[in-house]
């Protein structure tokens, strides 16, 4: 049965949740999210995107913002999955 082999993906769930909050977020490969917008402080947005991936122990988020996309920040979480609860 195909439904038995499909598993939830924390990054896909995070993209959906962030979109529901009005964020323009897409995925790069398996472990990276990219948030794009006109926000003035991407250093607050990148960790927020990581926070939306509650179950993933290794994940990165890149946020580009500012009037012309000239501001950016990169955040990475590398905690063992056992410490996430």
Report on the architecture of this protein.
This protein has 85 residues and is of the alpha+beta class. It is built from 3 helices and 4 strands, in the order ααββαββ. The protein has helices spanning 2-5, 10-20, 42-51; strands spanning 24-28, 32-36, 58-65, 71-78. A 4-stranded mixed beta sheet has the order 1-2-3-4, with helices on one face. β3 (58-65) and β4 (71-78) form a beta hairpin. It is globular, with a radius of gyration of 14 Å. The relative contact order is 0.19.
Brief characterization of the structure:
The chain is built from three helices and four strands, in the order ααββαββ. With 85 residues, the chain is an alpha+beta fold. Strands 1-2-3-4 form a four-stranded mixed β-sheet, covered by helices on one side.
